[in-house]
Amino acid sequence: MKKAIKWSLIVIGTLFLLLLATPFLFKDKLVSLIKEETNKNLNAKVDFSDADLSLIRSFPTLSLELKNLSVINSAPFDGDTLVYAGRLGVTVDLLSVIQGGTIYIRSITVADATMNFLVTKEGKANWDIAKPSPTSAPAGEPSKFKSSIKLYALSNADITYDDRSLDFLLRLENVEHTGKGDFTQDLFVLSTKTHSPNVLMKYAGVPYIASAKVEILADLDMDMSQLKFTFKQNQLKLNELELGFDGWLSMPDTNIDMDLRFDAPKADFRNFLSMIPVVYSKDFTSIQASG
């Protein structure tokens, strides 16, 4: 009995040491693969200062955290930061890392991020950074990365969308966002939650939304084969104004097509009054609204 206990403890201890050592054994391989694949396939420079791996906290999957991740644009936006993230966490299937080939991603989390999306007056978008597939590549050759994401999340993210071809600006600060869905399927439901305490929207230089708090609950029917996304059971709250919306959005090519409809289930005047931009609010300081 004592021998059995002794050998059991030795086996358990050995397995525990292997769990501790595995991330370090495969760290260089995984880090090298990430940098090599991203920079090879993107017309931008992708870099990060450090990477931490752990098997203990996410067993039997491997947890990877990149620190100070940056995606810097090349020409014609040379030197502009497309994305910066203080931390990017990725959970991957350990067996797929050991075997090589396809790496299965289970979840992605981004924290302390800044994202800048720009469209020039000529319609050139700074996020269009994917390099075209080489014509010499065999047809149907599988990628080394295959997404099977169950969860993604943004925390403390500042997002700017500046479309100069439309003279439209949208900025969201301190965004908290989560999304759940099975991206292995061509058809699935994506459930999302979004919160931002400070939103700015300008069109033609006029601030239609300024310093507004936004909360969005949205379920979307995702058709990945057609790149068409249909909204269902959604709720949008801007300050005290609550809106419902439905419709769809699709990306058949480089353009975006959409058909969206909004309604206001709570249409009290004071709810609409809460949306008056700050630049005009001084003109309404003496108004009292009820009903």
Keywords:
12 strands, 4 helices, disordered N terminus, single chain, alpha+beta, 291 residues, 52% strand, 12-stranded mixed sheet
- The number of distinct helices, counting runs of at least 4 residues, comes to 4
User: Main β-sheet: number of strands, strand sense, barrel status?
Assistant: 12 strands, mixed
Our Rg estimate from Cα atoms comes to 24 Å
Beta fraction of the residues?
A: over 45%
Description of the structure:
With 291 residues, this protein is of the alpha+beta class. Helix content is 19%, strand content 52%. It has four helices and twelve strands. Strands 1, 2, 3, 4, 5, 6, 7, 8, 9, 10, 11 and 12 form a twelve-stranded mixed sheet that branches. Strand 9 and strand 10 form a beta hairpin.
Task: Give me a quick take on this structure.
By secondary structure, the protein is of the alpha+beta class. The protein is 19% helix and 52% strand.
Question: Topology of this structure?
Answer:
Layout: H1 2-41, E1 44-47, E2 50-54, E3 61-73, E4 81-93, H2 94-99, E5 103-119, E6 145-163, E7 168-180, E8 187-203, E9 206-223, E10 228-238, E11 241-250, E12 257-266, H3 269-273, H4 278-281
Parallel strand pairs: 5-6
Antiparallel strand pairs: 1-3, 2-3, 3-4, 4-5, 6-7, 7-8, 8-9, 9-10, 10-11, 11-12
